[in-house]
Amino acid sequence: MSQRPEGLFVGLCTFDVVQLVDHLPGPDEKVTARRQTVAAGGPAANAAAAFAHLGGAATLLTSIGSHPLGVAAAADLEGLGVTVRDLSADSTEPPSVSSILVTASSGDRAVASTNAVGRRIALPADLTALVAGYDVVEFDGHHMDLALAVARAARDAGCRTVLDGGSWKAGTEQLLPSIDVAVCADSFRPPGTTGPEEVLRFLRDHHVPWRAVSRGGRPLVWEGPHGGGTVDVPAVRVVDTLGAGDVLHGTLAHRLSLQTELTEPAFAGALRAATEWASRACTSFGTRDWMK
């Protein structure tokens, strides 16, 4: 393992426009936002930023393009210490734009985005060399063809692989056998599952040795090869939940990159530290203020 942990983050990068509002507008209604912020977004991008914030060397493998909004998103990440490898660098199409409304009283967010829909990217020719040397490789499930190829190469190279299961996506069942650690949101619902216990069983049946389900402010539930348990989530005053799951995964990846061998206590400890960072992120507006 390198002295400075190295993480590769594979998945979505968006250009986020975030508005803090008193209430979500109704039909044909306009509201004036209290605050706004713009930043690069997407689960993999935000996780890479969190990994870099904790001192890791983070690389994002994604599709952005050369449109001015894409240039701004890449510059934002590079300013946070993230190395961006853009597999659509020659594309002049705008990047995926996420429009996000955060309700001031609750911190709940409403998001509209095209995500990775319609974006076609070519697999890197140097895939085997690309993954070599990383301590951890994290996937958010977007750009699934890319994720499948990188995950298999990472597994062959002996890199620890982590899945951010934000939601079930077509092809996820093919990705799971190449995943060492899967931490899924409560909204992650594989076919035929209705709750955390069934999701954990599904992951186990698909050969994921370390698995967990986060449930917002409720305790996170986890399982390893020989046991399991729960991790309490710190109680905080919630300002904005946007990106909290991404912070959890980026900081978890950082902790996992420091573990040569995973044990149940080490996994639970890594999850506990990650939930503390994610809770901290919920106490400020946007996806960057928690770093200050």
UniProtKB/TrEMBL annotation:
It comes from the Bacteria. One of its GO terms (molecular function) is kinase activity. Pfam families: PfkB. Residues 9-288 form the Carbohydrate kinase PfkB domain. Keywords: Kinase, Transferase. PANTHER family: KETOHEXOKINASE (PTHR42774:SF3), PHOSPHOTRANSFERASE SYSTEM TRANSPORT PROTEIN (PTHR42774). This is Sugar kinase. It comes from Streptomyces aquilus.
